[in-house]
Amino acid sequence: MIGGVECKIHFFVMSLPHSDAVFVKGYPAETTEAFCDGHVSAFAFFGGIPQSILYDNTQLLDTALPTSGRLFPYLTVDKVVKRYAYLRRLHPELHGTVFHSTRKWFITQCERTGVPEHFTATLVGHRSARSANKLTYGLYSAGISDEQKRGIVEGVRAPEG
Prior knowledge:
This protein has helices spanning 32-46, 77-90, 99-112, 117-124, 136-140, 146-155; strands at residues 10-16, 21-27. The protein is mainly α. 3% of the residues are buried.
């Protein structure tokens, strides 16, 4: 019960089988944000990142990207940069890297897969000179659609390894 109201709690659980260490955190819903926050919180709790993770409930992972609206409506660049800085303090192996290392990788993958530069600029929050006078698209266009953005993101894959 929260505030006198009965509600369902969804638990994120991560355990380390060799040490029997267990991390548990509750969330109001099974969302991508809760999944990501659960990992970050567990890694901070354990004081490191396991070399591999075996999932036993991948229902959230098996879903496609949302079909409408923003991909991560509550995620801002500010939150990502601050969390990355926090993780760098916790994990010495991340020293010397910056949030922009990830951005650089993503932009490189977009270029290598033939994504037009102004589409990539829209995805990473850069301004784009899409026309010589910066008036036609720059002033009157709403930019690329959420569907186009999803298609680009789905086309860029992290290296397996």
